[in-house]
Design goal:
alpha/beta; Rossmann fold; Helicase, Ruva Protein, domain 3; 4 domains; 19 helices; 14 strands; globular
Length: 456
Amino acid sequence: MTRAKPVLLIVEDERTALRALKLILEDEGYSVLEAACGEDGLRLALSEQPELILLDIRLPDIDGLTVLQRLRAGHSDAAVIIMTAETSSANAIRATQYGAFDYLSKPIHDEHLLLLIRRALEYRQLEIEVRSLRTGGTSAEAGVPGMVGHTPAMQEVYKTIGRVADSAATVLVTGESGTGKELVANALHQFSGRRGRPLVKVNCAAIPGELLEAELFGHEKGAFTNAVSRRIGRFEQAEGGILFLDEVGDMPLALQAKLLRAVQERTIERLGSNAPIPVDFRLVAATARDLSTAVAEGRFREDLYYRLNVVVIALPPLRDRREDIPLLVQRFLARSERPVTIRQDALDKILNHDWPGNVRELENVITRAVVLAPGGIVTPEVIEFPTLPSATAGARCSFWESQVPYRDGYWAVLRRVESALVKAALREAGGNKTEAARILGVQRRLLYQKMAELGI
């Protein structure tokens, strides 16, 4: 039976907020039920079957996430909007994973709430019509280590993690260097049904191509020189769990073909063997590169790109979520072995920086500031950012740009520049490859790879 007007249930223990919400919703023409605790809210939800529930997380008897789980177990199909003043990555992920339509941080903007309610009711009606009701997921451990942020952009990241964590879909995590792509992989593992199985991580940029193949697929004894015994690769190590390929955009083209086959067929072959080995894994890949551009330039396989580009989680750069910077600063300060505080003028200096290195750069700056902080107080004087090119360097850059032999082609010019950099670092290091890699700021194995590619 269709009701004359939608019935909404508010579960909120703060009486003033409850009365205010009820008045707003009744003015919009909704029929409103109210409950001041979780148990009363559950009873009303299951007996009255409201179309939508506004549910606070912090309640005097049971928390809102538990109420949400029990609602789904009791076969309530109400759309649920979570309300809370305690925004956290774990709460946002779990709320979405348990079947909430959305997640609102207090204080709540009335117009935004009303718009969200209309969208939720429309979405619920569509679900009923197509008979594809979503159900809640399994419980997960509290907290997502390292993930900090309450801005709308980060809330969307948490919601997407919650929606896809328990699926088998391949996930591609994009974002600039230092934005926390590995933390997303950790969260996907923690909130998935595979959390009791391995999370195996491989940095494709840190391992030379000829070694990366053996690292991923393993090898048999005698497959190549120094292969003195069989080795199990990362695909097999990730059996039943998640394989995280970081910087997948740096993978050599020849190896991309083997990765594509493994993703499509869920079988691999160790080096030195033709015997197919079935593997059960979920793939999460990450890249700081624009893979669509790499495809257009012929540096990344188009068919592999579409295999990876199933669910995309795009991490915003820190400069686009400056409101999260104070939270991150406090997180990093709290790691200090001694009590440390930060002055407002020092925080203002941090807020005015563009953070090209994102969260990783911020962490390094705060770590250094804590060490140098006089009397345990971080002042502007101990906040130092990595050196940026000076105006003089800019003039030199303009001169250099005028001298670039661009007609030789992009890759030819890039090869010359790489060769000059590697040779200069080796000269400065007196031929010591470890020291040369340190000077260049790269892994030693990457230096070896470049030397081989450039014939140095």
